[in-house]
Amino acid sequence: MSDTSTARLVYGSTLGRLLIEANSTGVTRVAFTDAQTAGPVGENPTAHVYLDTAAIQIDEYLTGERRHFTVPTDRSGMSTFDREVLQALEAITGYGRTTTYGALTRHLGRTPADARKIGGALARNRLLILVPCHRVLGSDGSLIGYAGGLPAKRALLDLESADLLLPLG
Fold first, then answer.
1. Predicted local confidence at residue 99, as pLDDT
2. What is the pLDDT at residue 36?
3. Cα 168 to Cα 159, 162, 165, distances in angstroms
4. Are 30 and 54 in contact (CB under 8 A)?
5. How far apart are CA 134 and CA 123, in angstroms?
6. Rounded to an integer, what distance in angstroms lies between the CA atom of residue 99 and that of residue 111?
7. How would you classify residue 68: left for phi > 0, otherwise alpha for psi between -120 and 50, otherwise beta?
8. How far apart are CA 23 and CA 91, in angstroms?
9. What whole-number distance in Å separates Cα of residue 152 and Cα of residue 158?
10. What does the alpha-carbon distance between residue 36 and residue 18 come to, in Å, rounded to a whole number?
11. What is the 3-state secondary structure (H, E, C) of the chain?
12. Half-sphere exposure in the Cβ direction for 25 (13 Å, CA)
């Protein structure tokens, strides 16, 4: 019988401390935290591999060496609607690309009245950085709504756009 316990890690990234959680299926959570330690960490060896892999890949991303995450994620704890929104987000935004709440709503075939529901699904994203809700902007291009805070959102967007800028002259 496999161990289904959740393993946890508080990881010090260049953006701040991140709480990373995983189980035997994949990473279940990446969130900013003020905690110094993760508390009970679980004895699940597969989950620990996913924690280590996630930390390495986040580091590579934050240093500009990685554009796509390959660590498995487990979204089974999310509602069907939230999974649908996050999958749509991943489909329409790649590294260095942004979208708006309205464009994401239209992509999902929803009415403008559903934009708040879409925003709610993004606010519930338990896989920050790995699932790039930082790439969603207000309709006027403004930075709004990010669980990690607007400075972290700005830093992530700046990171992704830095190597896409053309040199002058």
1. 93
2. 85
3. 19, 14, 9
4. yes
5. 10
6. 16
7. beta
8. 25
9. 10
10. 10
11. CCCCCCEEEEEEECCEEEEEEECCCCEEEEEECCCCCCCCCCCCHHHHHHHHHHHHHHHHHHCCCCCCCCCCECCCCCCHHHHHHHHHHHHHCCCCCCEEHHHHHHHCCCCHHHHHHHHHHHHCCCECCCCCHHHEECCCCCCCCCCCCHHHHHHHHHHHHHCCCCCCC
12. 8
Residue 165 has pLDDT above 60, yes or no: no
Q: Are 136 and 89 in contact (CB under 8 A)?
A: yes
pLDDT at 1: 41
87 is catalytic: no
Whole-prediction pTM value?
Answer: 0.89
pLDDT attached to residue 44: 86
Give residue-wise pLDDT tens across range 103-142.
999 999 999 889 889 999 999 999 999 999 999 999 888 8
CA distance 59 to 162: 17
Residues 52-97 pLDDT 10s: 999 999 999 999 999 999 999 999 999 999 999 999 999 999 899 9
Q: Which one of the listed residues 54, 118, 129, 133 is annotated catalytic?
A: 133
Q: Which of the pair, 151 or 43, is modelled with greater confidence?
A: 151
Q: Which residue has tokens 């993004």?
A: 122
